[in-house]
Batch of 2 targets.
Target 1
Amino acid sequence: MLDWRTSRETKICGVIGDPVEHSMSPLMHNAAFRKLGLDYIYVPFRVKKEDLKETVESLRTLYVRGFNVTIPHKVAIIPFLDRLDSVAEKIGAVNTVVNDGGVLIGYNTDAAGFLKATKEKGVETKGKNIIVLGAGGAARAISFILAQEGANLIIINRTIGKAREQAVKISQIFQREVGTLPLDRENLKKALEKANILINATSVGMSPNANETLVDSELIKPSLVVFDIVYNPFKTRLLREAERAGAQTISGVEMLVWQGASAFEKWTGVEAPVKLMREEVVKDVGKA
Ligand code: NAP
């Protein structure tokens, strides 16, 4: 049951996407606003592809304070914004927008959230051999930020063309080599022999297909760090098997919470209550 009160000055935030019902963000942000007594409310907006331009204009003119952007709008929204911060511009995708008095500024807090999650768990990425599984939207933000941090990257993806495209773009920006491989067991085995960190940035293992994994458990060594950005379930099959193999694991919930915290701080100017936001997500994922 929602215990909610708005006022004459309530500021509105939200998320646009299609579908949008699965988003954890309303839960996380509303709990945070309530906890800190901030007069804000966060709502989900289902927005179809063909309505994106008009919706963005409406959010601007309604002075909605800010919003998150999810599938399928993260790239398509860019032409409708006034400015991008430099990270979002280089990644070519936006997941957070701030409305500064009618001026719309795009950010990519997926990248910042991912990095913060690794640092908070004491995982150093600079100079490490890192496998990024996937070359979709989230993988793109992660590969970019890891290259910026000075990691040695191999992008492994089912559709090799997408991996190559990202590798070329990252190499051009950071003047460093990025390896690519098509996804199969042999390639994974070879790459894992030298890897320090493995990141699953595909949707494989996500509920309701929680029993799927791209990585054979025998390939996971105890010295590996395994980060699965899938956050539902909280512990994916990949993470459970990595834990059993003695590897350090990081759940996608951590990235979700830190990207949310970063957006929250941009909209409110107040430090996000990260612990509470994590508890809200874990409670809800636990229910799924
Ligand atoms: P996306 O752009 O649709 O990319 C999906 C990726 O998964 C692609 O690389 C795709 O490979 C790969 N893939 C899908 N099914 C596969 C299969 N059966 N076998 C091998 N590869 C497969 O999606 P996204 O936005 O990047 O999201 C990916 C996942 O990250 C989702 O589960 C999402 O919920 C999660 N996510 C988490 C956070 C967080 O904060 N924790 C943030 C963003 C996203 P192809 O290129 O070959 O199609």
Target 2
Amino acid sequence: MANFSKKSGLPLILGFALLLAAAPDAGHCQTLRDYTEARSNMVARQLKARDITDPRVLAAMGQVPRQRFVPDYLAPLAYGDHPLPIGSGQTISQPYIVALMSQWAEVKPGDRVLEVGTGSGYQAAVLAELTDQVFTMELLTELAQQAAERLKTLGYYQVRVKTGDGYRGWPEEAPFDAILVTAAAPQMPPALTAQLKEGGRLVIPLGEAGGDQTLVRLRKVKGDLKEEERLPVRFVPLVRE
Ligand code: SAH
């Protein structure tokens, strides 16, 4: 997971142009059929070939048109095994990380799920394939508006998007069966642990911006958080309002 800052915009675009030229798999997407094929290759090679085993998560990842969640000029790269810039200095996570977080969250139909860090809305759309109760918060107004519009256009009417500081969670809609944070927090946000149901799963990258971060899965057991999974990662920072 790369962390893209605004400053690195130009080299980044050049880098992606090179990637585009060098990636025959992803680089030749022009028609809807090309994208459908690239998506099923992504599911087979990046998810099934690794440790994504939950059939509902695999089906969700095979369903959501990721190319619609990235800027047009990057659409041909949408199914590559990497994150991509989505504007405002933010990134959409690598497909594998989205799938892993969804799998760790163990979302069942009817579960209430909170995502902190809407970004493009892609992770929210994947969650919406797993339950009809998805709540997502984004600090940046422009990204929140774009994501809300995009999700509606694609038919994900059940996703509720709110502009605001996700560090405080969404108390009016709590408690949640699962909470996914898609930006790295230096410390555990207390509001999020409070808004998690007993038995609920919290998936969150912990660590400093640009430093070592660990994606963890915590489960609330008898009121305490029990750590069950961990993986080294690199996310953009969770910013405080
Ligand atoms: N899940 C997104 C990618 C998220 S990138 C996707 O699928 O595309 C992380 C996002 O978290 C960024 O859009 C950033 O603006 C947002 N963010 C950072 N701090 C936040 C906060 N305190 N509350 C809500 N969103 C925050």
